[in-house]
Amino acid sequence: MDVIEPPPASSPVMAAPRARRAWRWLVLAAVAGLAAAAGFGVPRLVESRTEASPRAITPRGQLLADEQAQIDVFRKTSPSVVHITTLEAQRDFYSLNVQQVPRGTGTGFVWDERGHIVTNFHVIQGASAARVTLSDQSTHKAMLVGAFPDRDLAVLRIEVPATKAPPLPLGTSRDLAVGQKVHAIGNPFGLDQTLTTGIVSALNREIESINQRTIRGVIQTDAAINPGNSGGPLLDSAGRLIGVNTAIYSPSGASAGIGFAIPVDEVNRIVPRLIRDGRFVRPAIGITAGQAGLNRALNLPAGVVLVQVTTNGPAARAGLQPFRRASGGDIVGGDVITSVDHEPVKDLDDMLTLLERRAPGDTVTLSVWRNGSTRRQPVTLVAAE
């Protein structure tokens, strides 16, 4: 049989392992040198080490008063804050079966003992279903009761005993002061039951709703509000609801210390009507307003320019007239509504905001400008179609 002779020591086959061993020793020497340079020596044998034991704990003492107050607010109110998961229907490409898949998450809070849950409209917008998770981690199917996109509010309902979902105590927003302490509870980035604190940074801010309506009287806060906090409560230091967290100002999409909440006085005006009617029935006077630039083009005062008046509507019965074109093409002057109950209006959004504070059947006094003179005209509101 053939005998395979070992290669000579100088051959490349033997030289490669020797080179690798040499490199290993060089690397180990370099590491040892770096350790010595950094002040680390080779560890001593275990037998020569000194004994050590855990350090004694320094007594903490009592919590500060404001710390205990924040803890109490969270313990008292967190059972009333819920986690909302929205679902959407998707059809499987292969089986054609329709199934519901998670779409997004948000926060809400218990409004009353009948299981009504308040949240932002944009939290549930476009969803086919929603589920509500309570603080005890039980999950319940939610039913949509009503929504008002103009104020970014929606109401859901779950079937649970009142003891499992206690309503939040209600406060007021009309007497808030800049600098007042506030607390926000929500589910930012899907993290359950998160508390952040801050102050009221400013009042009477204006933000735009999802359908480009102006939301006025908004509370600005520096309490950290992030995606997932939407629809959660803003609380005062007594644990009362003072606003619904709805938006942040942030170039990065995370909290930049500027958050906004819909004031609770507005929420308390709208939510009962959503529960009662399933929608917000806006009072109307039966007019169509012209575009904003029409006032400037026709050199008219600030206000709502009427371009159409509904036949037999409240405005028509009160004698209001629209601007229109004559047969020859000339513009025939009409009316401009400049105030509602002595509160000035500069455009249709202003007027709608004031009318939304009333109800169908109420009577308001309009200031109506026509051809350089202004008159006061009472008008009875009706439900918008």
Q: How helical, in percent, are the residues?
A: 10-25%
Spatially, the strands of the biggest sheet line up as 1-2-3-6-5-4
Indicate the structural class: alpha+beta
The major β-sheet equals: 6 strands, antiparallel, barrel
Rg of Cα set: 34 Å
Content of β-strand: 25-35%
- Strand count: 22
Give the mean pLDDT: 84
Question: What is the CATH H-level superfamily of the largest domain?
Answer: PDZ domain
**Name given to the CATH architecture of the largest domain:** Roll
The overall number of domains is 3
What's the overall geometry?
Answer: elongated
> Between the first and last Cα atoms, what is the distance in angstroms?
106 Å
Tally of helical segments: 7
Briefly, what CATH class of the largest domain?
Mainly Beta
Poorly predicted runs of 5 or more residues: 1-7, 10-15
Helix-strand pattern, N to C?
HHEEEHEEEEEEEEEHEEHEHEEEEHEEE
**CATH fold call of the largest domain:** Pdz3 Domain
Outline the structure in words.
The chain has 385 residues and is α+β, with helices and mostly antiparallel strands. The chain has 3 domains: 77-157, Beta Barrel (Thrombin, subunit H), CATH 2.40.10.10; 181-277, Thrombin, subunit H; 283-383, PDZ domain (Pdz3 Domain). The chain contains 7 helices and 22 strands. Strand 8 (194-208) and strand 9 (214-221) form a beta hairpin. The radius of gyration is 34 Å and the shape is elongated.
Keywords:
385 residues, alpha+beta, Thrombin, subunit H, Pdz3 Domain, six-stranded antiparallel β-barrel, 7 helices, elongated, disordered N terminus
SSE topology sketch:
Layout: H1 12-37, H2 65-77, E1 81-91, E2 98-110, E3 116-119, H3 121-124, E4 129-133, E5 139-148, E6 153-157, E7 181-186, E8 194-208, E9 214-221, E10 233-236, E11 241-248, E12 259-263, H4 264-277, E13 283-284, E14 287-289, H5 293-297, E15 304-309, H6 314-317, E16 324-325, E17 331-332, E18 336-340, E19 343-344, H7 348-355, E20 363-370, E21 373-380, E22 382-383
Antiparallel strand pairs: 1-2, 1-4, 2-3, 3-6, 4-5, 5-6, 7-8, 7-10, 8-9, 9-12, 10-11, 11-12, 13-22, 14-15, 15-18, 16-17, 18-19, 18-20, 20-21
